[in-house]
Amino acid sequence: MADTASTKTSEPTGASGGESAGQALSRRSTGAAELQESRGVTTIQDSVVAKIAGLAAREVAGVVSLGGATASAIGGVMGRLRGSEHSTAGVGVEVGERQAAIDIALKVEYPARLHEVASSVRENVIDRIETMTGLEVVEVNVAVLDLSFPGDEEEDAGSQRVE
Q: What is the sign of the dihedral through the CA atoms of 151, 152, 157 and 161?
């Protein structure tokens, strides 16, 4: 996974027959999942799914940031411009008709148990996306790219100071 955000679209997945009350998810070429009901259509852009995944990952204790070093640097600048909670750096999504697959790259604080943080991220991302969008999340791949040690932020801030 690259350090920058990637939103990938895939061909629609096959129909699964378990539709309820006239609901059906369909895929358009616009990069959005579409929930069709008897009284209208709700369209969910892939970028929205990526933002939900990013926010859900950041909610987990032990997660310092998303993405690698390059994404963190770019995310810091973008965060000052529009708020870091809107960043999708380190998050990739593939959304089909009814399903989504998510890739998340993150930095974890030391000495967190990496496998537990990854598992918690996976569970929280699945819960948030399925609850908020109605899509079935078929997989969440978590890549731990870096560790953050106590004092890292202080050293980084000090090295950027101009005297």
A: positive
pLDDT tens readout for residues 106-144: 999 999 999 999 999 999 999 999 999 999 999 999 999
Question: What is d(CA 105, CA 23) in angstroms, rounded to the nearest whole number?
Answer: 33
Element (H or E) spanning 138, and its range? strand 136-148
End-to-end CA, the chain: 37
Q: How far apart are CA 65 and CA 69, in angstroms?
A: 10
Residue 66 tokens read as 């998303």
Structure-token pair, residue 58? 């950041």
Question: E strand or H helix at 79, and its extent?
Answer: helix 69-82
pTM: 0.69
Residue 86, classified by CB atoms within 10 Å of its CB into exposed (0-12), middle (13-18) or buried (19+), is: middle
